């Protein structure tokens, strides 16, 4: 097959109706039909854009100083598809400008019915398939309406026609005395013959057409990753799955669903790209694609996936499995459902214990926070199964423990957890049973001795200098604090209180024996005596920032009088256990805190 026959680009300079150039290309030729495709945005030009557009036209018509000859005007580039057998051309780029020209002509026809040249112009050359016929209905209403137009309408075409009418009045009725009288005949002649477009006609598939658009687009809103996915998914469903134009409506409903969920929450929990990031995990695991694709950004992943599936360009990491991949609107819809089900329960704390709530935060605070989306991959995989929610919570609890261990042990290194192991977890979630998922995670957690064999020893990192690494210090001190709370409670109010105290309240990590002793003469002696113990979990605990910064580096006797003001159980318990404080107590507490954390992690 000759690809040259499937792909071509032609460029020409056009005017609206009269063109003295060699190719005499015009836009409003007899029986012209311009189609705004289903995947385009609705007509959306604002008052500011309309004002700039109309005033620029009049500025060129009047000449620089109002008395000079009219100047030709370049309106920009328009990208059109190749004309089909029905004389139709899709507008790839330029629909906002071309629609505004139609409205301008409509307004001029209503204002100047005596102008014969205007009366010759029909308004049946533009059609829109956007929004399932709603936009076309609005357009037809605007074309059939008579003056006066109204700004009090939901119809964007009528609303903009009203504003265009006002702008024309501004330009034609407030003419300075030294300027020529406005002639509608001269103006319409200028409009039809001296406003130039560069028309780029492409004969190509939709994906290639959009690639060209992104290369040449200089006007209007640029397509983002979400826009491009919508269009390319539509092309895939139409060309590869045999669906009709209703496929675009199905895809659009997904976007609408995300918007509606966010509106009901009154904040943006996620967007379509966040949903597609979850789908990316599922596709890679389900179709056994190379694991390197987990590191691709969402836009790059789907761009190369569609390129390969639609045979535009074959990318190496997709080529061996391309024939087996089947994309589904249903799958994306299911991801949206579980994503917002989680969001609802997270907001209400429905079905959560304090431990469950904190486990999410420990994942977010860990060095492996990028994998928190696996919550939704698991919910997607388990959704139709019994106990799917409780299973997800169990998975998250254990995953938070695993991430805690490896964030503590490998705080400056990317361990095998970061890549190889988590890729196995994703593959198991998508393709195997929940029991197999938990076996994999729990075996990686292993036993306490598995992490204390002399190489990045967990015991050492738990008990020695915590201030060397902020993430390690914060994780260990917050874990210590959580374990002193009633973390098994499922009382909704108390769950939120514990979570909020530990992760939202402004907190400092308090040195019980101050590092800079209040008695400056004793500081060297304190450092010599306490050494690394002064920065250990034995001498550190979380404390409200307000209390910590008011007690400063005062002696322990002063501090312990203020500690009971804290809401944290770990601080209250400390007061009861240690009315006095010295190095011996610190070493004792260090072992107690270490054992408390290890017993929890390894059950």
Please state the average pLDDT score: 91
Shape: elongated
Beta-strand segment tally: 8
Pick out the low-confidence regions.
1-5, 218-222
Number of helices: 26
What is the C-alpha radius of gyration, as a whole number of Å? 34 Å
Largest sheet: 6 strands, mixed
Distance between the termini: 65 Å
Number of domains: 4
Percentage of helical residues?
Answer: 40-55%
Order of the strands making up the biggest sheet: 1-6-3-4-2-5
The fraction of residues in strands falls at: 5-15%
Query: What structural category arises from helix and sheet content?
Result: alpha/beta
Can you summarize this structure?
With 603 residues, the chain is an alpha/beta fold.
Descriptive notes:
This protein is of the alpha/beta class. 54% of the residues lie in helices and 8% in strands. It has helices spanning 3-6, 47-62, 95-111, 116-119, 134-144, 156-173, 184-193, 206-216, 225-239, 246-265, 272-286, 298-309, 329-348, 354-365, 374-382, 388-409, 417-431, 434-445, 458-463, 470-482, 492-503, 523-530, 545-551, 556-562, 569-577, 583-601; strands at 8-14, 33-36, 73-81, 88-93, 126-128, 195-203, 507-511, 540-544. A 6-stranded mixed sheet has the order 1-6-3-4-2-5, with helices on both faces. A hairpin with a 6-residue loop joins strand 3 and strand 4.
Essential attributes:
elongated; two-stranded antiparallel sheet; 26 helices; 6-stranded mixed sheet; about 600 residues; alpha/beta; 4 domains; disordered N terminus
What's the SSE blueprint?
Elements: H1 3-6, E1 8-14, E2 33-36, H2 47-62, E3 73-81, E4 88-93, H3 95-111, H4 116-119, E5 126-128, H5 134-144, H6 156-173, H7 184-193, E6 195-203, H8 206-216, H9 225-239, H10 246-265, H11 272-286, H12 298-309, H13 329-348, H14 354-365, H15 374-382, H16 388-409, H17 417-431, H18 434-445, H19 458-463, H20 470-482, H21 492-503, E7 507-511, H22 523-530, E8 540-544, H23 545-551, H24 556-562, H25 569-577, H26 583-601
Parallel strand pairs: 2-4, 2-5, 3-6
Antiparallel strand pairs: 1-6, 3-4, 7-8
Helix pairs in contact: 2-6, 3-6, 5-6, 9-10, 9-12, 10-13, 11-12, 11-13, 11-17, 13-15, 14-16, 14-20, 14-21, 15-16, 16-18
